[in-house]
Specification:
single chain
Length: 290
């Protein structure tokens, strides 16, 4: 019948294409919203690409800056070398923060963010009261000489003891067989500066917490002197060296007394006795039944 009427398959294919094009055109006419201008779309695409290029250039500049700083330090060096250069690493990270941010700077130099925050806190200078004109007074007979004051202050301000309390400093010096001054004298020579926080209140990530605590626990057990256990370290008690350390300290104190007994008011200085037990969280005691 189709052949008789002069209609062939090519005619049907053309008809289908025309119907599909008409349906598509009708859908576009009924589509809501403003029509997209090809020129505007192209300009927007160009702006997006320019912004992406600028972002990548900034990222590349930061990467170059980080690489240049990393070349200054050797993360694979010896433990002693890394310890000696830690202050330089912290200073470099502090300078890098303004360019790349805290997280990127600390990550690039393998430095816990808490160490950088602690460094920044320590840099804040305690405001001192206005200077008062000194009134000439007679020097107390037991006071340290100017040379002795300078020696004590040099030790207190040294990088080794800059973040330590006077009581801990004196205990460590006694362990080394050295006596400089009493704890009260050390406090007087420091001008009553307030203690700086030594442990961060929070961490940026779990990795930061683990890195900080790994170093903190070693210091706490092997170097920090605790007032509750006679200014000993937990390690000295745990290994049974407390009695030996106490004997060495007493010998040092007695030697200092022999040199200047009047400075101790003619009484041999004595150490605090070691406790029989020390608790962080003491166990609850049960009440005796009457």
């Amino acid at each position: 019948m189709l052949r008789r009427e002069g209609i062939y398959s090519s005619h049907l294919a053309t008809l289908r294409k025309q119907r599909q094009a008409a349906a598509t055109s009708q859908q576009l006419e009924h589509k809501r919203g403003p029509k997209v201008d090809a020129t505007t779309a192209q300009e927007r695409k160009v702006r997006d690409l320019e912004a992406e290029v600028a972002r990548l250039r900034d990222k590349l500049a930061k990467a170059d800056l980080i690489i240049n700083v990393q070349k200054t330090f050797d993360p694979a060096g010896t433990e002693h070398h890394r310890h000696a250069e830690r202050a330089e690493v912290i200073s470099a990270a502090d300078n890098l923060v303004g360019e790349v941010g805290v997280a990127a700077a600390c990550r690039a130099l393998r430095l816990p963010r808490s160490a950088l925050y602690r460094h920044r806190t320590a840099q804040r200078v305690c405001p001192l009261p206005p200077a008062v004109p000194a009134v000439p007074t007679r020097r107390p007979p037991l006071a340290l000489s100017e040379h002795e004051r300078r020696v004590v202050l040099d030790v207190l301000d040294s990088p080794r003891f800059a973040n330590c309390a006077p009581a801990a400093i004196q205990a460590q010096l006694l362990d080394e067989g050295r006596y400089l001054a009493s704890v009260r004298t050390m406090y007087r020579l420091l001008q009553g500066c307030a203690d700086q926080p030594g442990f961060p209140s929070r961490f940026g990530s779990l990795a930061d917490a683990r890195a900080e605590c790994a170093a903190f626990f070693t210091w706490y057990n092997q170097q920090h002197r605790h007032s509750g256990i006679g200014m000993m370290t937990p390690e000295s008690l745990h290994t049974g060296r407390a009695a030996e350390v106490r004997k060495l300290r007493q010998t040092t104190l007695e030697s200092a007394y022999q040199r200047t007994p009047s400075r101790f008011k003619n009484r041999v200085p004595q150490q605090a006795k070691l406790p029989t037990a020390a608790w962080i969280n003491p166990p609850a005691t049960e009440k005796k039944v009457a």
